[in-house]
Amino acid sequence: MGRWRSASFLLNRTASIFKSRPSLHPKLLLLPPPPPPQTFGPSFFTLRRFTAIPSRVSVYSAELDSGSHDFDLDYELEANEDEETAKIPVKAYFLSTSINLKSMQAENLSDVIPPSSRSSNYIALRYCDFPSEISALRGKENVSHCRYMVVFQYGSAVLFNIEDHEVENYLHIIRRHASGLLPEMRRDDYAIKEKPLLDEDMRGGPDYLILKTLDTDSIRIIGSVLGQSIALDYFVSQVDGMVQEFAGINRALEKTGTFTMDRTKLLKLVGKANSNLADVILKVGLFERSEIAWRDAKYAQIYEYLREEYEVAQRFGNLDFKLKFVEHNIHFLQEAIQNRRSDLLEWCIIFLLILENVISVYEIVRDSGGASL
Predict the structure, then answer these.
(1) Burial 93-117 (b: 16+ CB within 10 A, else e)
(2) Whose CA, among 36, 156, 183, 292, lies 20 to 30 Å from 124?
(3) pLDDT in tens, 197-214
(4) What is the band of 60 on the pLDDT scale with cuts at 50, 70, 90?
């Protein structure tokens, strides 16, 4: 009732204003008071009807704000999901020119993973924090809880989920079966992220690879490409050294018109160039198709992506071009050395002819002197 008293007070005040201002329409003075609102039940229902619309708008606005906030949060989480996912470190090493896989497998037989292909130029080893009996009871083993090592016969080793302070212990296992250890070991780093909710089987990132499922075949595929890449890097450096050596010879030849290389050293360079090319093609198997990738498309996708990421084909093309440069210089120097030897033989023949003529003249002079006496 207090509300209607306030309304009557407002109407009476309005009427007094109209009385003081006759220009206003007189019928406004006779307006009846507004009818009371229709109520259903107690008075608090009326109050709720009066405030229903503002309340609904305010709740809806809050819901919109909350939904917008959740959407932004989800977007941020999705955008930073790759950064928050733990990376599995991958380290590739090239430490020798040959590794005896048979002796290494015999010494580490309990850690060797049974092969899934007929390839015999590598072995894969697994080191877990729990015994094999517990692993068998668990069923499917979580790869990220184990450490893996893929060792190749041509001298490469790829380590998975092994921290820097643990690397030397695992490399010591390899060195016991390696021959032709390099004075300076070559290294390359990579990383893997495992994301089970990934829509596709794999997705590439900057210096890492996102996989829906990381299994032992994925480790073999990744290890094969990284092992070939680090080995190719070593052979490229060897060929670069030969290119620099021939570049120095060519500069000296340009200045003096001659060179000092002997035939033995040149033949050594020929053998070194040919052996490097043969090792890249035959031992490293740079152009041999992976049997695992051949069987399953998802492994083929990983294989092709990594070969493209590391530019394996392009780097071999550069290596082949440098080897052709070395071959061209070798042929040129061989011809020059051959010509030099031919010239030397010609001068020897001339010297012998001269010596023979001198002896003949001497004998003639001697015989003529004796006859005159």
Answers:
(1) bbbbbebebeebeeebeebbeeeee
(2) 183
(3) 888 888 988 788 999 989
(4) very low
Taking CB atoms within 8 Å and a gap of at least 24, the contacts of 240-245 are 240/322, 242/269, 242/272, 242/273, 242/322, 242/326, 243/322, 243/325, 243/326, 245/269
The full set of domain ranges for the chain reads 1-34, 88-327
Rounded distance, CA 120 to CA 227, Å? 15
Residue whose pair of structure tokens reads 């109520």 in the numeric block: 39
User: What is the per-residue pLDDT across 32-58, written as a single tens digit (0 to 9) for each?
Assistant: 555 554 444 444 333 333 333 333 333
Exposed, middle or buried by CB within 10 Å (0-12, 13-18, 19+), for 252?
A: middle
Closest to 115 in 3D by CA, of 130, 107, 125: 125
Tell me how far apart the alpha carbons of residues 120 and 101 are, in angstroms, rounded to a whole number. Answer: 9
Closest CA to 243 of 323, 176, 167, 337: 323
